[in-house]
Amino acid sequence: MAHYQPPKQSKISQLVDVLVLLVLSIGALYLPVKLGLAGASVVHKTVENPTWESLGQNPVQAGQYEALGYTPESAADLITARFDYSFSWVSLAIMVIVVVGYFVMMLKLSETEYREVIAEKFGER
Amino acid sequence: MTDFDITSGERDGMGPHGTKVGLLRVLGPAHVWALGVGIVLVGEYMGWNFGVGKGGAYAALIACWFAGILYTCVAMIDSEVTSTVAAAGGQYTQAKHIVGPLMAFNVGLYLTFAYTMLEAANAITAGYLISEVARLTSGVTDLDQRPFIVLAILFLAWLNFRGVLATLTFNLVITAIAFVAIIILFLSTSGVLGTSMMKHADLMSGQASLPYGWIGVLAAMHFGLWYYLGIEGTTQAAEEVRSPARALPFGTLAGIMTLMTAATLTWYVCSGILPWEFLGDGVNGSVAPLFDTARLTGSGFLVFLLGVGTLFATLASANGCINDASRAWFAMGRDRYLPGWFGAVHPRYRTPYRSIIFLVPIALIFALGAPLDQVITFSILSGLLEYTFMPLNVILFRKKWPMGVIKRGYEHPFHPIPAITLLTLCAVTYFAVFLGYGTQLVAMIGFYIIVSLWFHFWRYRFVNRGAQFTMPWPRPAGY
Q1: What is the mean pLDDT of residues B138-158?
Q2: What does the pLDDT look like over B213-247, one tens digit per residue?
Q3: Which of B2-11, B267-276, B377-386 has the highest mean pLDDT?
Q4: Which of A5, B116, B118, B263 lies deepest, with the highest CB count within 10 Å?
Q5: What local confidence, expressed as pLDDT, does residue B5 receive?
Q6: pLDDT tens digits, B170-215
Q7: pLDDT class for B319, splitting at 50, 70, 90?
Q8: What confidence tier does A25 reach under pLDDT thresholds 50, 70, 90?
Q9: Residue B26: is its pLDDT beyond 80?
C-alpha cells in the first residue's frame, strides 16, 4: 500500500477541532443536568406530624438519627424518599439498541481503518 | 516469538515514536499501587453510599462484591495487555494496536472523561469537608466551598505540571495514610480494640434490610463500581515505570486486593453505625460516610483522623486523575487524533504540560456546576464503556497474537472466562444505570456516536496510518 501522507492542518483548523470537541462534550454532559432530565425520580410519602414510630424507625435507628442531630421533622424527607424504579420496556429496548448499535458501528469502522494501518505497516499480502 | 523486551533500557526516556524528549522512567511497583489505589480509595470515602440509597445496605454489599468480581476481571485482563503494550495512554494505546483507530479515539475520550469527572467529584467532596469542619469547629454554616474547589484543582494541576515522581510519591504517602485511617476506624469500632459499636441487626431490620427487593440490588450495582473505579488507571504510567512487565501486573493486582479489603471494611463500619436512609443520600445526608461514622463514635481522635483521611483520599484521587487524564489526552495529541499541540512534553519537567493545563477548566466547570451524584454518574458511565471495550480487546488480542507469538509480561488465567464474566457484569450495570439515569446514558452514547462519525470522516485524515502502530510485534493473524 502506498504510504499515506496526511495533509498539514492549519492552526485555525486545529483550534476549531478542539472547540467542536469541547462544545459537544460539555453539551452532551451538561444539557441533561441543566434541562432537569438527569437523575433518578424520587417520590416522598407525606407523614403528618412525624414521630420516629410513624416514620418506621426502631429505637436504635431513632437514637442514631438523634446523635446525628436530626429530629423526626428534619429527618422525615430523608427517611420517606424512595426511588421510582418503574420503567417502560420500549425505553429499555431503545437503550439496548443504542448501546449495541454504538459498539457495532465503532467496531466496523475501526476494522476498516485498522486494515489500512496493518497494510501500510507490514505491506500488502 | 518476538523477543523484544519492553523493559529494555534502550527505550528508557524515549517516547514510542522515537521522540528525543520522552517521559521519564522513574516509577516502581509501589508508585503503580499508589496511582491505582490513590485514585480509587476516595470511592470508600464518598460516593459508594449512593448504592445504599438505591437498594439498602445489603444491596450495597452485594454490589460491592459483584463489582469486585468485575474489577478483578478488569485487573487480570488489563495486566496481561498492559504488560505487553507498555506505553502512555494505557487502554487507548491498547485499542490502537489491537482493535483500530476509531475504537482507540473513543477509549481515549472514555479515559479522559472518567478521570476528569472523578477529579471534579473529588474537588466537590474536599470543598464539602472543609465547610463541614468549619461548621463543627467554629459554627460557620455558610462557608463558600467554591474557592477550596478551585484551589484544590489548581494546586494538584501545578504538582502534576512539575513532575511525575514528586506527584506519585506525594500520592503514595497520602494514600497510605487514608488507607490506615480506615483500618484504625474498623479496629476501634468493631470490637477488636475495646467495645463494639456495631448495630447491624437493629439498623438493618425489617424494611431496612432490602427496601426495594431484588431490583434494588440490581440498581445498587450502578454505584457498586464506585468502590473501585479508576484502578485500571495504573496502565497510564506504563511509559514511566522502570520495569513495566513486573511493576504493572504487581501494582494493579495488589491494588485490587487492597481495595476489596478497604471496600468491605468501609461497608461494615458505616452500615453498622449510620441509618441506611441517611447513609444512602450522598447529597442531603452523608456526603462523607467514613467521616460521619467517626463523628458518631464520639472520639475526637477518630473524627480528626477520618477528616484527614477523607481530605487526603480526595487529594490523592484528584492528583492521580489529573495524571491519567492528561496522559490519555497527550497520547491522542501525539498520534494526531487530536491537534498535535497537545502531544508536547515539557522540556524541563518532562510532563505532558499542555494537556494538564487544558483539562483544568473542564474539571472546574463540572466541579462548580453539577451535583455530586451526577458528576459521579458521568464518571461511572465513561468507565462502564471502557470496561465493555476490555473483553472485546482481550479476545481480539489473543486471536491476533496467540500465546507464544509475542512475549507477555503476565498471562491471565482461564481465558475467556474473565472476559465473558466482565461483559455480563457490564450488561447488568447498564441496566442498573438505566434505572434512574437512562437519559444521561443515552445522551452520553449519542455524544460518542457523533464524535465517532466526526473522527472517522474528518479528523482521521490528519493521522499517519502505519506510523500509529509502534509496538515491535509481528503482523496480526488474519490480516
Answers
A1: 90
A2: 999 999 999 999 999 998 887 877 777 788 777 78
A3: B267-276
A4: B118
A5: 44
A6: 888 888 899 999 999 999 999 999 899 999 999 999 888 899 999 9
A7: confident
A8: confident
A9: no
For chain A, domain boundaries: 11-38, 41-86, 87-125
Cβ atoms of B188 and B299 closer than 8 Å: yes
Helix, strand, coil percentages for chain A (3-state, nearest 5): 60, 5, 35
Q: What percent of chain A has pLDDT over 90?
A: 67
Contact A32 B439 (CB under 8 A): yes
Are A29 and B451 a contacting pair at CB < 8 A?
no
Cβ-contact B24, B241 below 8 angstroms: no
Residue B81's CB is within 10 A of a number of other CB atoms, namely 26
Q: How far is A88 from chain B (nearest CA, A)?
A: 10
How far A49 CA sits from the closest chain B CA (Å)?
19
Q: Does B461 contact A110 at a Cβ distance shorter than 8 Å?
A: no
Measure CB to CB from residue B475 to each of A40, A110, A118 and give the nearest one.
Answer: A118
Q: CA-nearest residue of chain B to A92?
A: B434
Measured distance CA(B128)–CA(B145) in Å, rounded: 6
Q: What is the pLDDT of residues A66-117, one digit of tens each?
A: 999 999 999 999 999 999 999 899 999 999 999 999 999 999 999 999 999 9
Place of cell 480509595: B41
Specify the CATH class of B31-463 in words: mainly alpha
CA distance A41 to chain B (A): 7
Subunit contact A109:B377, Cβ cutoff 8 A: no
- State chain B's mean pLDDT as an integer: 88
What the block records as the C-alpha cell of A119 is 497494510
For chain B, give every domain's residue range. Answer: 31-463
ipTM: 0.90
